[in-house]
Amino acid sequence: MIDVNKIREDFPILSRTVYGKPLVYLDNGATTQKPRCVVDAITDEYYSVNANVHRGVHFLSQKATELHEAARETVRRFINAESSNEIIFTRGTTESINLMAFSFGEAFLKEGDEVIVSTMEHHSNIVPWQMLGIRKGVKLRVIPINDAGELDMEEFGRMFNEKTRLVSVAHVSNVLGTINPVKEIIRTAHSHDVSVMIDGAQSIPHMPVDVRELDADFYVFSGHKIYGPTGIGVFYGKEKWLDRMPPYQGGGEMIQNVSFEKTTYNELPYKFEAGTPDYIGSNALAVALNYVSAIGMKEIEAYEHELTRYAMEKMQQIEDMRIFGTARDKGSVISFLVGNIHHLDMGTLLDRLGIAVRTGHHCAEPLMHRFGIEGTVRASFGFYNTKEEIDILVKGIERVRQMF
Ligand code: PMP
User: Fold this and answer.
1) Shared domain check, 168 and 228
2) How far is ligand 1, taken at its centre, from the CA of residue 122, in Å?
3) Of the listed 23, 37, 312, 363, which one is catalytic?
4) Residue ranges of the chain with pLDDT lower than 50?
5) What does the pLDDT look like over 123-177, one tens digit per residue?
6) Are residues 98 and 197 in the same domain?
7) Could you tell me if 364 and 149 are in contact, meaning their C-beta atoms sit under 8 angstroms apart?
8) Of 293, 315, 336, which closes a domain?
9) Can you state the angle between helices 36-48 and 279-295, rounded to 10 degrees?
10) Are 131 and 231 members of one domain?
11) Atom number, ligand 1, closest to the C-alpha of residue 121
């Protein structure tokens, strides 16, 4: 069981006030707050270890390299990858997907080939594929969704043909909260000999993820959404694919030998990590992963599930409430509109009550078009949120509703 009061003590920012009101932070889908151990890991390493990794013979460089490579092993263990060669550090989900689109695109895609995404994708899992489409003539196919915000799995099954090369879908929608049946998606795609990339930005902080159990070919996520620092993320790929994919960026670290005539590339994972990596960030990410592991991803999942159930029940009682995303399998994200109140007005007025929510299209404009709206208000929870905070949110929404 999660002792939420004790956990909240680990997050100094949660006890601050805004406009004289206690902060109610419900924007965890955008980024999460950081426990003290993560911030300490950053300052400690800068103060006592800092040196560039991999290239140095001196003590500090070796120490920093050890921390960086230990972090890679921590990530490997966290998602149960087979080898740490399969863990590539990036800046985050967005960079991971761009790496994927470029490198997988170079290796395996040609004009007329098709990539399947879904209606609920974040722009970062749409635009890199469109850019590849412009470069190489690769086409996007889109899995439709129903009004509850669930993928149309029957239609998905019918979308495969001899041109299909890749399925790239979110594990959990950042707008609807839908938990997609990724295991089934992967099984179906593999039965057609098609690889699958999972955007884990919104799943990795909220549930146990085992890439081998899922049999995902690629899995990507951001450190800052799982209580780690900004600027670090992960690109996981099965070694059998990564071996055949070309580097994404050129520079230091990713080479074996360079001459003006010919350059040979480094082995995995360094082939995909040009330049000085964010070795401070990787270590702090590992600290974050160890922190959530100590609490338990299963416990976090169960606690947030109950929090979401409670919030859905309370919010559905509000007059003129419209909730977008009522999937049977739903994570801790609630997008809504109340009557004709503009999402920006709702967000701004809630902010004055100390409640931080997100408003807008949430980088998912095609999904907004699907529902015929411009944007929503989105409350998204982490394991440090409480039922009391949901009560404050519900009261806040009621208050705003009565003002209009
Ligand atoms: N995919 C999804 C589903 C997301 O929610 C986000 C962040 N909102 C991203 C991708 C992009 O993540 P980042 O900005 O950390 O690269």
Assistant:
1) yes
2) 7
3) 363
4) none
5) 999 999 999 999 999 999 999 999 999 999 999 999 999 999 999 999 999 999 9
6) yes
7) no
8) 293
9) 150
10) yes
11) 3
